[in-house]
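Page 42, continued from yesterday. The earlier attempt failed because a stray header line got pasted into the input along with the sequence. Redoing it now with the clean sequence only.
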Amino acid sequence: FVHRSFSATGEYPKGAEVMLAVQLARQRSAAIAGKASLLACKRHFSDPSKVRQNVFKEVLKTDRKQIGLWTGLRNTLVAEMLSHVSGMDWFVIDMEHSPNELNDVLLQLQASQHGAAEPVVRVPWAEPVVVKRVLDLGAQSLIFPWINTPEQAQEAVQATRYPSLGGIRGVMSLARMNNYGAQNPHYYKEAAGQICNIMQIETVEAVENIEAIAQVDGVDALFVGPSDLSASMGYIGQPQHPEVKATIEKAFARIVATGKAAGFLTANKDDAKWALKCGCAFVAVGS
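This time it went through. Structure tokens are written below.
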């Protein structure tokens, strides 16, 4: 309900408006508005032998904006709520800066992947073994932190693809990612098409390499991290510094010019509106 209110008015609900929004959210929970939600509902009643369709990734190719939220609470109820009734389009299960471990990620994926909001896992590092295990749990959207060069972006993508298909991902025959074998053998060839690879741009070097990173085959989006970027620029703890914001705005324009989706995280409503105006396709509006 927070997302719907924000989208409609540009303001977060307060006081009595929150109670009204809760009532409206309950009424709408059975059929959340939007094409993505309808597709998400449809995919969960399809043939179990078919590979899960990543609606979040598909919508990134359109002009539709997707609003999300960050979470590091290790809580299945939060994941279920965000996916099923919040009205959000996506949310992050954070492994980099929170105590989420593999089993925590598994439980949150199980709670959320039958809802409307896509769970996006931020892995702690672009490390192939961690990536392999997260993918085998069934995650289909990943954020890779601290990607500074096209070579690092390529290595991240390779960790999500199987050998002979452009990658080094280990092959597991029976696991959650292929519905315990029900999607074999076609899963292995179709998996990459449903995995969304998001590279996090959070250093001066990464900003300099935006175009080269975006050109890497398999990169779907570039996500600007304001906190680390401000630190890299010498303004640690000052993501609102004029020079930082100017750099971020130019970064958005350059990402959009490559044809890839731009993403952003902020708890400030004005900054969220600013990022969307600058062309961001997906914005997290808080944690």
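Notes: The two ends are 15 Å apart (CA to CA).
Reminder to self: strip header lines before submitting.
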